[in-house]
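Hey Z.,

So I finally got round to the pyridoxal-5'-phosphate thing we talked about over coffee. Here's the setup:
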Amino acid sequence: MTSREVRELTDQFILPTYGRFSVAIDHGKGARLYDMEGREYVDFTSGIGVCDLGYGCQTWVDAITQQAAKLGHVSNLFYTEPAARLAEILCRRTGMAGAFFANGGGEANEGLIKLARKYSFDRYGKGRATIITLKNSFHGRTITTLKATGQAVFHNYFFPFTEGFRYAEANDLASLEAASGVDVCAVLVELIQGEGGVLPLDREYVTELAKICADRDWLLLVDEVQTGIGRTGTLFAFQQYGIQPDALTFAKGIAGGLPMSGILAGQKCRNVLGPGTHATTFGGNPICAAAALAVQETLNDAFLQEVQRKGQYLRENIEAMDLPCLGKTRGMGLMIGVEVREGNVNRDLASRLIDNGLLVLTAGTGLRLLPPLVITKEEMDEGLARMRKALR
Ligand SMILES: *Cc1c(COP(=O)(O)O)cnc(C)c1O
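And the result:
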């Protein structure tokens, strides 16, 4: 098919929930993607932080094909090796005590919310189910995670929403105090707000938040759906903040491009969700788990340090270009936000970059760059050259 045919078929038969760019992607290699006509793009998106090993990575392909030939799926009523091994690795690398596997970020956050409420119910009974989240956050598209998302634009159309959320300003302890109360059971945060604009929380705020949670037996919940799996240059972003969450969620990058997500729970809430309280048919699927094991093998300490250096390199070079439409950069590792200066619209700049062979994302009012973690210097330089040419 041609790109145009793919676009037309999509528009005719797929519900119009996405404002898509006009490109139809056919295949990829490394950090490069190719459309139906073979036109090449440097990818600074990883499909929104998913394809951490890039495209066509041989160890990933082998892991998937070998597992597919062996066993594609079996119910969680039985045991399977890939999920068990993956859970062990994730727990050992994070100091957490147990994993639950699901399929997407929103679904993982639903489970996290259930875990927090049941933890509190088991200890304190009813009436202590409120979760404080942060303004400008993003936690998913289900009815409950939309409500957990601290942006009023998401609290529309789909009434009635799930009750039991209050919102506090990020990096503002007074605002947290104003949202607190005897009905609170947990605080849920992204350490770097992703969709909100790549906005990292301050270290002192996070330290203080962790203390407050520990004092009041509020669970400290971290949504690492976007920041997790090496994206920020450590396996999880919390490891750079000197805290230990009670539970966290991961998704996007976990299986390098296959749908998988999950919860990691600390010792305190390890046994909260007992048999029959939570489940999902595809959770821990052996093919996804095998792909995730290939990702974990790649993401060793030396590789993660490289991620930090690559992020530094991209940010320094973007700022050094001194483009009239772009301002400062922010973020951690290969999760990078670029300020868009007044008088420019991020979506227009993204379109111009894509037309010039560089795929980028927007977030908040800025640009967002989430390149594959395996991106090479040559691929970064090519992307930077295209950025310079497109936005000069
Ligand atoms: C993407 C994202 C989600 C939602 O994940 P889905 O897989 O789209 O359901 C939730 N939280 C954060 C922080 C995200 O970036």
